[in-house]
Design goal:
two-stranded antiparallel ribbon, 5 helices, 434 Repressor (Amino-terminal Domain), mainly alpha
Length: 69
């Protein structure tokens, strides 16, 4: 899939665990793990907004498009 997630990179930069993020934004660890692993098929804007607010980042910091050419 040409869209990859950099959630693990941003979490490391912010020195925050997935557990802490889950607690801050009230989203299950399972759902965040799916997003972090790149296996998510979709992301709600409300989820993306909550992640960006908690991590003080932009959506483009988390999601990246890589051309398959």
């Amino acid at each position: 899939m040409p869209i990859i997630t950099n959630l693990d990179v941003i979490l490391a930069k912010r020195k925050m665990s997935l557990t802490e993020l889950s607690e801050r934004i009230n989203i299950t660890m399972a759902n965040l793990s799916v997003l972090k692993s790149g296996k998510a098929k979709a992301v709600r804007f409300t989820t993306l907004e909550a992640i960006c607010e908690a991590l003080e980042c932009q959506p483009s910091d988390i999601l990246e498009y890589i051309s398959e050419k």
